[in-house]
Amino acid sequence: MYKHFFKxxxxxxxxxxGLLFLAPILFIIAILIKTTSKGRIFYRQIRVGKDNKDFxxxxxxTMKENADKSGLLxxxxxxxxxTKIGYYLRKTKADELPQLLNVLKGExxxxxxxxxxxxxVNYYTEQQRNVLLVRPGLTDIASIAYIDENEIxxxxxxxxxxYIEKIMQEKLSLNFEYIAHISxxxxxxxxxxxxxxxxxx
Length: 201
Description:
- The protein is mostly helical.
- 52% of the residues lie in helices and 10% in strands.
- It has helices at 2-36, 84-92, 99-105, 118-121, 141-145, 149-154, 159-180, 184-199, and strands at residues 42-48, 54-60, 109-111, 137-139.
- A two-stranded antiparallel ribbon has the order 1-2.
- The radius of gyration is 16 Å and the shape is globular.
């Protein structure tokens, strides 16, 4: 039962509370982005959601305008495409906060497999595509395990190959572990672990 009605209820309650409580902080971040670099405040990117349907994931912009045209992966926290304020937003994961709107709209959940771009979903096996049967989330156990993913990729000889053949495969394994044990207690634990890792990173 939690996988359906109560999980959605938890998502709506948590996202609404988060947006109301964080509104002043979100406003300050928006001003900082607009006054320290050229471009939009928000960045929208097409990701693959539940039932293999595309949706626009919302983030605070942390890179120079049109930076994604030179590659989808961010290699290292000091990627020269990242803006000054963007570095701190990424470090604290504050750039992900606008996704509370995606959660409120029902495109995402607070906890669930992080949504991938279509390019990498196309590498999924038929079995791996089952991860798309649940709503993607703001955080998950794979995000905690790979909180330093950018730095791992920065040390790789071929970042994209390392992502596809190693990191993505291990993330998917963790995602299926989560799906097999979905519960309110598990979700609360993942949210708490995520906050702890961000604060003490």
